[in-house]
Amino acid sequence: MSEVVSFDEHPLARSATRASRPGLTPPPVFFDRQELAQILQIYGQMVAKAEWRDYAIGNDKHSCTFAIFHRTTEKPVYRISKEPKLAKKQGAFSILGQNGRILKRGKSLSQVLKLFDKKRFEAIE
């Protein structure tokens, strides 16, 4: 006769809930698929306009960043950051300029990405 083991008693259940317990390391922060798709859509438009040429993605314990470069050897022109700790305060998403100044901050990525609207990049005649 087989023994019934509840999920809480199963050895793999301990490792699955380990990240949610206080005092243990949380899972790494990264953009989800939908967020990354939104960022890459704008990135593709700007590459087509020859404004941007390269990007890099990085993360640490508390945040992740999508850095956008005009040339590979330069500092990033923009950095799109996600910091979940700030979600209830100022908003988890922010866009930083080349000098490190926060250009836009918000609770949703689509709200923050409005900084790159077509109107902002059209030439004035």
Structural notes for this entry:
The structure is a single chain. The longest helix is centred in the first third of the chain and has 16 residues, at 33-48. Strand 2 and strand 3 form a beta hairpin. The chain has one domain (33-121). It has four helices and five strands. The chain is 25% helix and 21% strand.
Order of helices and strands: HHEEEEEHH
Helix tally equals 4
Straight-line distance between termini: 83 Å
Radius of gyration over all CA atoms, rounded: 20 Å
Offer a concise description of the structure.
The chain is α+β, with helices and mostly antiparallel strands.
Summary tags:
125 residues; alpha+beta; five-stranded antiparallel beta sheet; globular
List the helices and strands and how they pair.
Layout: H1 11-17, H2 33-48, E1 54-59, E2 64-69, E3 78-82, E4 93-96, E5 102-106, H3 109-112, H4 118-121
Antiparallel strand pairs: 1-2, 2-3, 3-4, 4-5
